[in-house]
Amino acid sequence: MKDQRSFLTVNYKVIRKNRKTIGIKVTDEGEVIVTSPFGISDKIIQNIIKGKEEWILGKVKLMQENEILRNKEIKNGSKFRFLGRKLELEIIEVENIEEDFQINNGKIRIFVSSRGIVRDKIDEIYRIEAKKILCERTNIYSKIIGVKPNKIFIKNQKTLWGSCSSRKNINYNYRIIMAPIEIVDYIVVHELCHLIHMNHSKNYWNTVGAILPDYKERRNWLKSNGHTLKI
Q: Where is the YgjP-like metallopeptidase domain (predicted)?
């Protein structure tokens, strides 16, 4: 069941479900969605939204800014994050492509036959590098922790940086390699420790802390900066 309401300059959508609590979410497109149990009045929802006004408007502004960045033209000199550094893009148009890309000397060089495929090529490069880096880091920490995942998958997850299934498969969000290596390692350790504890219990966090004593600082960095890790 859905209905739409207006809140200041923000439109928000109310979705009523069979649930116990009220949730507020701002999508990547800047849409505000309120999920509410049946029987909760509009007035109660409005009061809750009013109490979250600053957070909602800040989140909407952030998502709108991200949307502008996503639609920004990619050209020579554009900057892209890679393992915490900013690489400058150099586009080289060639007819016969012998190699796809190079990452060195603070630059990411891509060789393309047409400028129309630049964005897709960068996305492909990051997926390739993510698979290499994340598999390497997983192998290192697997030996330290004494666990081994069944399979590793590289994905583009909207809301997760990683996940671990009951089949001992680990999924990584390829965009995490835009973050510094210590943040990459935090995600790797986070998921590997789920092979021991399939929850976020005290024992789980103790296991993470035994490997990364400063995991809270790394986790906080990701919470504060994760929204910037976009291509």
A: 20-225
